[in-house]
Amino acid sequence: MTRRTDWADHTASESRPGAPGRGHGDGVEPERDGRDGDGSGTREGAGRSGGRRRRRGGFGEHQDSGPPSSSRAEKGEPPAGDPAERARAICLRLLTGTPRTRKQLADALRKREIPDEVAEEVLSRFEEVGLINDSAFADAWVESRHHGRGLARRALARELRTKGVESALIDEAVGQLDSEQEEATARELVARKLRSTRGLDRDKRLRRLAGMLARKGYGEGMALRVVRQALEEEGEDTEDLGHEAF
Predict the structure, then answer these.
(1) Start and end of every RecX third three-helical domain (predicted)?
(2) Residues 72-93: pLDDT tens digits?
């Protein structure tokens, strides 16, 4: 067999001008595209190339084996860290622009899985510096809901209880309203609603107006008295009206 070095010399001599050509009769295949005659270079290169492709394929499969894990921020969760810092951040965000009771904040911290002892410490500190003040909250709630919505003391007390305000603070807050002020507000409510009931029969007007006052927390006696007076001022006969109509 011709050695590689001899074959290189031989092919070099063929490339010189005037060198005699050499056919295939010698039983030796000339190199093509830089490959050895026995094709070992091609097989070796193919083996290496195939190996690289398999490795790339395996790496790609590993990357595509599942969706990338989402961070806590992408899920909208607060960043992990000191529970007290998280509790303070949650409370400050909730208190921005809207007063809240201690119970409302405690419920929010519990939903965010803040430990109870940490929540208690943070909420107590917020009370010390005046960021939480259930008494002031109750006073402002009564002022706003009575003058804005016309709610009576009973309805106001019910709302404050649902927000976790203590009974003593509720009594103090709703005590700002006396019976005279409450009745004056009831008369204003009936006066605004009275026109829309014109054309209805007397008993239906009574039930509609008194029902409106009852939903706002006014007692039955006050509601009936205020509505009867309003109907009398419009010329309705209310002599035979009793609690049955209400």
Answers:
(1) 182-225
(2) 444 344 556 799 999 999 999 9
